[in-house]
Every structure is written in structure tokens, then in C-alpha cells.
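Reply to dn_fold:

You asked what the input looked like. This is it:
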Amino acid sequence: MSDRRLYGLIGKSLSHSFSPAYFKSKFLKENIQDCDYRAFELKSISEFPEFIKELNTLKGLNVTIPYKEEIIPYLNELSAEAMAIGAVNTIKIIQSANKTELIGFNTDLMGFSSSILAHLKPEHHSALIIGTGGSAKMVAYFFRKAGIDYRFVSTSKNSDREMIHFADLSFDVVRKSKIIVNCSPVGMYPNLDKAPEIPYDAITPIHLLYDLIYNPTETKFLYEGKIRHATIKNGMEMLQIQAEASWKIWNQ
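and this is what came back:
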């Protein structure tokens, strides 16, 4: 077995992912010479058990779209927060001679909460969450803890009180919802001309638009907020914070 420690990222399409470049830079800057970080594309989450079996030097993984929820049945244990959220973006791997233990965490929560807190104001008491995946669940968990009312915005019809279809997203709903968080991939590189289809004319200078996307640094969604003098925030700081939180978990 190699003395080098291997970490990585699993997802479906990873050619423009943040984590490999971030950790490569971190290892260089901090003179960490016995670690590698690689991107591992899985066509299906069903490939995960064989993937883990083959890479016995793995110490930790990050998880991205579309596997943050699908990964859960493959894990031995979840942190309390990951269980409450229903999504995992970090896995600590404990390898022994005859056993591999996989423990799931959600460091996205720390990244999101730390990066949005400075922008929250008393009037930010109602929110829209665009998307319904693992990241959207994390944002909803934060809003519940913060006492902020929220609704998910979805492309599918649903009778759930917390859900609203894009077609039913009126000017008044957007005007009243002073926080809008994009948890969908709409607007991500290379689809730079795309943005979630919401009535942007309802955006005011009091609004806070947060996009979990970091590439490009200013999505069309954020641009539409900026020209209406709203506060805008992309996902870069969140990613940096969650990456450092992942590293701490893997090495504690």
C-alpha cells in the first residue's frame, strides 16, 4: 500500500470542477507532499462500491452533482447535520485490513452559512430556493435554523406547500421574497447566457441574490440582480470554506 494519501471528488461531469485545482494549490502552498487529490467521474452511483474497493489509498472524498443524495445508502454513518439535511458532500474514509468505513458529512452548510451571514438584514425574512437537489436541501436547513421562511422553486408541479412552480412565480412573490438562492446548474459554464426564469423586474435594492455557481464569477442571474442594485454573491467563498472544512474532517 502506498504511503501517499489520496483524496478526491466524485460526480458525473467534473472537467470544470473547483476542488482539484483548489487542493493542488493548497498542497503546494502548504508544502503538503504526501497527498494527491483527483477527480473521479462516475456514470452512475451504482459504480461507487467497486470504485471504493479498487482505491484502497483513499482517505476522503467530496461529492458533487448529482450524487449528494444518492450517495447516502452507500455510507456506514452520517453526521447529525448530514442526516437532518438529507445530503452529503464530504466522506471520511477509514480503511483497515478487512473493513472500509464511510462517514458522510455536509460541509456545504458551513460554507453557505459563513458566506451569507454578513449579508443578512432584518428585512431578509423570506426566501426562494431555486432547485430541489442536495444543495437546495442544505440551504433550506440553514433557513429553518435562521428562522427565515422559504419556498422551493421547481420545474415540476407539486402540491407541497413549500414548493412553487416556475409558471406560478409571480411578480408579487418575488418582490416579497427578499432572498433568492440559485441552487440549480442553470447559468453554469459553458451556458453563460442562461438564467433561472423568474420575473427579475420584481428585484429591488433590498434583495439578496446568492448563486451557488462560481464559474462564471458573475452569472446572468447575478447580473440581473446587480443592474437592479440588489446585493449579489457567488459561490466561491462557500466552496473555499467547505473545502477547508472537508480537509479538517479528513485529518482529525
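The CA atoms of residues 45 and 73 lie 10 Å apart.
Hope that clears it up.
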